């Protein structure tokens, strides 16, 4: 296969350091066209717009819209001949099944899959703490994510990986990893199904929504089982989850019976 043509997008915005890191890395192995949000669009999920404004950018196109807008605009008009969509690198992990639909980063990959184009979403896992915002501010901080993504682009697109998976959700640990000497290992994972969203109402009647998972995202407190994405990054491994985009369906005999009985019930009511 010739060098792939890659549509690169994200949800942190086209000027984010994680985006620049991937653009520079992927440009060494492919022809990269940037179609990314002009500003931060984190956690917008698969929200899309009716029309978007394009702004010229040194990397390609900045879009005044969401990550999904960028993928639709790119694959539908700007660069429909790309071989692959890469979304990232997001500052902050996208781990667990319940996060997949909320993440703008992952949603861009999902949208690409509906176009029939393979995709990779990439995020940098940073342990929680008060200094979170001050971390990962340079492109060099995303070097491991850049290298892992480049590796996957070079190999997954030529080794039939996307015959079975629509997209790969990749999460890469940030910073020093105790007990890890040299390059991080890469583990194929499944999204954790753990869910700890909660809601509390205060005396004023307002409700605060909290995600209890992130309070437990330090390596020594994660008790998700081996094989899950959250366990892998907590152990200092690069997590790669092969996923499919369409919602799966499973037929159940009892539901078939209920559906078949709907008209029967209607006929009785009509008598």
Automatic annotation (TrEMBL):
Keyword Transit peptide listed: no
Protein name: 5'-nucleotidase SurE
CC cofactor note: Binds 1 divalent metal cation per subunit.
EC class of the enzyme, as a word: hydrolase
Family: Belongs to the SurE nucleotidase family.
HAMAP family xrefs: SurE (MF_00060)
Organism in which the protein naturally occurs: Halonotius terrestris
Cofactor(s) listed in the protein's UniProt record: a divalent metal cation
């Amino acid at each position: 296969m010739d060098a792939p043509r890659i549509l690169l997008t994200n949800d942190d915005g086209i000027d984010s350091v994680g985006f620049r890191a991937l653009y520079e890395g992927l440009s060494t192995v492919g022809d990269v066209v940037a179609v990314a949000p002009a500003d931060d669009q984190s956690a917008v999920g698969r929200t899309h717009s009716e029309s978007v404004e394009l702004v010229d950018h040194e990397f390609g196109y900045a879009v005044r819209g969401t990550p999904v807008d960028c993928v639709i605009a790119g694959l539908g008009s700007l660069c429909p001949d790309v071989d692959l969509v890469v979304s990232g690198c997001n500052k902050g992990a996208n781990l667990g099944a319940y996060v997949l639909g909320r993440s703008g980063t992952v949603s861009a990959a999902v949208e690409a899959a509906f176009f029939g184009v393979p995709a990779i979403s990439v995020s940098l896992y940073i342990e929680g703490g008060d200094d979170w915002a001050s971390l990962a501010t340079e492109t060099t901080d995303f070097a491991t994510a850049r290298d892992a993504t480049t590796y996957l682009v070079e190999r997954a697109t030529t080794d039939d990986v996307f015959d079975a998976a629509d997209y790969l959700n990749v999460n890469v640990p940030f910073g020093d990893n105790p007990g890890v000497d040299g390059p991080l290992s890469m583990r194929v994972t499944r999204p954790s199904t753990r869910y700890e969203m909660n809601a509390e109402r205060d005396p004023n009647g307002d409700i605060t929504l909290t995600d209890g998972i992130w309070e437990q995202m330090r390596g020594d407190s994660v008790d998700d089982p081996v094989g899950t994405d959250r366990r892998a990054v907590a152990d200092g491994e690069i997590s790669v989850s092969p996923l499919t985009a369409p919602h799966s369906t499973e037929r159940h005999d009892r539901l078939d019976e209920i559906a078949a009985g709907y008209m029967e019930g209607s006929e009785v009511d009509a008598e």
